[in-house]
Amino acid sequence: MILLSPKRRIFLHSLWIFVLFYPIMRFIGYTIPKKPVYVKIAAPLPVGGYQLTSDFILFDRDDNCWALSRKCTHLGCKLHYSETREILECPCHQSQFNSSTGEVVKGPAKRSLTLLPVEKRETSPYYIVTT
Ligand code: FES
Prior knowledge:
CATH superfamily: Rieske [2Fe-2S] iron-sulphur domain
Largest sheet: 4 strands, antiparallel
Bound molecules: FE2/S2 (inorganic) cluster
Shape: elongated
Structural class: alpha+beta
Helix content: 10-25%
Number of domains: 1
Distance between the termini: 53 Å
Number of strands: 11
Strand order of the largest sheet: 2-3-4-9
CATH architecture: 3-layer Sandwich
């Protein structure tokens, strides 16, 4: 008979619970929700302007501002913005997305880009984007 210390016994019980429930949680699609990250933009954008960050692109036009994720919905490459054509384009497989709505213009991507919540303010920080 093997004698276990109370700490080790608690650890092994916890391990068993994890081993039993983890596949079930994966099967039903449960994921631990991510904590929101608030990105503050200190400077106001020019009229009709936009700002590229590593994670999103922020637009401010006609009293309407919105932010789109720069992560391609096909395989996750980082999108580039074509100002002349007003589309977000993927350098990996050339998917294209509408810069106003995030909808797919050209595949292989099938899902639209994530539209991120933006809070516009009168003083600095002028924009707070929740990623
Ligand atoms: S990763 Fe963007 S189109 Fe394939």
